[in-house]
């Protein structure tokens, strides 16, 4: 199979500043953070504390960044972090975080202090991109000092708060464009040869291999299967190249790889992965799957207390 040549750069040569600028200038705004996301956050002011934790100053726009916190914070309650839109193009991550706030967060505030950052990468949301405008993948950049402002802003904010987190839910998607656009672009950026992976048809989670939590992951999978189907392993018994740990669960080394799942020292961590391109899932089901993942994980943690 001959891989399609990415239209930017020279095969075998990593991108320099000129190629990165060419890539940035080729991106177009396709939807609006200020119309889709910010009004939904503003609508939460009545029931939650909404705080701006940073500002991304990019050529297309200046993007304010927000966290939403449950009120009546109590130091004796465990604290849970929920992040969405680390990859801005992964739509249900953003809208799943918002839907959870709208429909379930007040209920779960009985047992948890909740901190929700619905959209870490608003430029990526608007341009439907995995990277930020400097061709940096935020979900490989949660290291200090971070090369991605998306990561640096939330890292600085959480560092100032000094909260101790029990759990972190990081909401993602795996899409067909991972193979058609983002993996070829990454290979061109690095000057390497692209090798696509099999896109799993269904929901799965990525646990942190540094802190395995099999029962927690199972509770999430069992909750999500009520909403949408769970991804099967491929012919090699893997999902996106990683060994299957249990049904619908693989592991990555969160902190070592600079993933958002390594952002905190939480003992319970999961990266959710929804498949929005499935013939068997609607956009609404994808959002509900994200909500079900959070609900299933929180129910498990509540019952363990």
TrEMBL record:
GO terms for molecular function: hydrolase activity, acting on ester bonds; metallocarboxypeptidase activity; zinc ion binding. The keyword Metal-binding applies. Its cofactor is Zn(2+). The active site is at 273 (proton donor/acceptor). CDD domains: M14_REP34-like. Transmembrane segments: none annotated. SUPFAM superfamilies: Zn-dependent exopeptidases. Keywords: Hydrolase, Metal-binding, Zinc. GO terms for biological process: proteolysis. Pfam families: AstE_AspA_cat. The keyword Hydrolase applies. Belongs to the peptidase M14 family. This is Succinylglutamate desuccinylase/aspartoacylase family protein. It comes from Pseudidiomarina maritima.
């Amino acid at each position: 199979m001959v891989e399609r040549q990415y239209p930017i750069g020279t095969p075998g040569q990593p991108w320099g500043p000129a190629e990165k600028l060419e890539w940035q200038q080729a991106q177009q705004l396709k939807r609006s953070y200020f119309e889709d996301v910010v009004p939904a956050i503003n609508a939460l002011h009545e029931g939650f504390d909404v705080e701006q934790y940073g500002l991304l100053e990019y050529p297309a726009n200046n993007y304010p960044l927000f966290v939403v916190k449950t009120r009546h914070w109590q130091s004796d309650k465990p604290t849970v972090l929920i992040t969405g839109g680390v990859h801005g193009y992964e739509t249900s991550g953003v809208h799943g975080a918002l839907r959870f706030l709208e429909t379930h967060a007040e209920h779960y505030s009985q047992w948890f202090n909740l901190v929700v950052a619905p959209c870490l990468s608003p430029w990526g949301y608007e341009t439907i991109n995995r990277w930020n405008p400097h061709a940096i993948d935020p979900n490989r950049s949660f290291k200090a000092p971070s090369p991605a402002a998306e990561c640096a802003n939330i890292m600085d904010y959480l560092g100032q708060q000094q909260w101790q987190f029990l759990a972190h839910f990081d909401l993602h998607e795996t899409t067909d464009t991972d193979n058609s656009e983002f993996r070829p672009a990454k290979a061109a950026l690095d000057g390497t040869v692209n090798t696509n992976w099999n896109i799993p048809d269904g929901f799965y989670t990525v646990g942190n291999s540094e802190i395995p939590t099999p029962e927690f992951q199972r509770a999430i999978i069992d909750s999500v299967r009520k909403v949408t189907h769970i991804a099967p392993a491929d012919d090699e018994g893997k999902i996106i190249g990683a060994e299957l740990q249990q049904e619908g669960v693989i592991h990555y080394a969160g902190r070592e790889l600079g993933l958002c799942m390594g952002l905190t020292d939480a003992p319970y961590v999961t990266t959710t992965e929804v498949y929005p391109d499935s013939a068997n899932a609607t956009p609404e089901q994808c959002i509900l799957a994200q909500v079900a993942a959070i609900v299933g994980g929180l129910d498990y943690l509540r019952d363990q207390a």
